[in-house]
Specification:
- The protein is an alpha+beta fold.
- The chain has one domain: Aminopeptidase (3-Layer(aba) Sandwich), CATH 3.40.630.70.
- The chain has a seven-stranded mixed sheet with strand order 5-6-7-8-9-4-10, with helices on both faces. The chain has a three-stranded antiparallel sheet with strand order 1-3-2.
- Helix 3 packs antiparallel against helix 4 and helix 5 packs across helix 8.
- The protein is globular, with a radius of gyration of 16 Å.
- The N and C termini lie far apart (39 Å).
């Protein structure tokens, strides 16, 4: 469905609760598409795959992971590509969600520069990943590892990736039918996740273990 519309926080949260999300149009900055795909991408919270090379990269250090340091800047970084669905309507709407505490960014920083990150919406015990970017090797993957650790500590039940890509597949993402997704969604939004319960000072080895431990 395509329409020109001003997104409100209430409309967005109702859409996510129903399993629907908006995407902007690169050619028309005022147009939105409401999406409810027949196959939905998720990353099982007990199924994150951290490769040997990524594990080594994390242990090597030289980076810092920050949460909500610059939410709008992270969105702009995600949109900084030749074609993007993150138009000004989307940017403004999700920035408002962030101000209300429903949207968060996880950012990877090196030498005072944000080199990777992701953002998404938190509702109940579900986190709905919107987009990610990387300007340094494994920078977005590192942000995802920290996100999964945070969601697991906070009692989340669902990490929605909307779609799958080769990048996400390599980390453990998979597709499930819409009807199965709706069951998971209903279970997730019926309880409360705690996004800020992760110990920010935890050593990287503990973060990896939190993100990859099997249930």
């Amino acid at each position: 469905m395509t329409e020109a519309i001003d997104l409100s926080a209430e409309l967005l949260l109702s859409a996510y609760a129903a399993g629907i999300f908006p995407m902007g149009s690169d050619s028309d900055p005022d147009t939105l598409y409401w999406v409810d795909p027949p196959m939905r991408g998720i990353l099982p919270l007990d199924g994150l795959h951290v490769s040997r090379s990524l594990r080594k990269r994390i242990k090597r250090g030289g980076f810092e992971v920050k949460v909500n340091e610059d939410f709008t800047g992270t969105m702009r970084d995600c949109a900084d590509r030749s074609e993007t669905w993150i138009n000004d309507v989307i940017l403004d709407a999700y920035t408002d969600l962030h101000r209300r505490g429903f949207a968060h960014s996880v950012e990877t920083w090196t030498n005072g520069e944000r080199v990777g990150g992701l953002y998404g919406v938190s509702l109940g015990a579900g986190f709905f990943g919107e987009s990610m970017f990387s300007r340094a090797t494994d920078a977005s993957k590192i942000a995802l590892v920290w996100l999964v650790a945070r969601l697991r500590v906070g009692g989340y039940r669902l990490l929605d990736t909307q779609f799958t890509t080769d990048h996400l597949d390599s980390l453990g993402a998979l597709e499930i039918p819409r009807k199965d997704y709706k069951v998971m969604l209903d279970g997730a939004i019926s309880t409360v996740g705690k996004f800020h319960d992760l110990d920010e000072t935890a050593p990287v080895e503990k973060i990896i273990n939190l993100a990859t431990a099997k249930s």
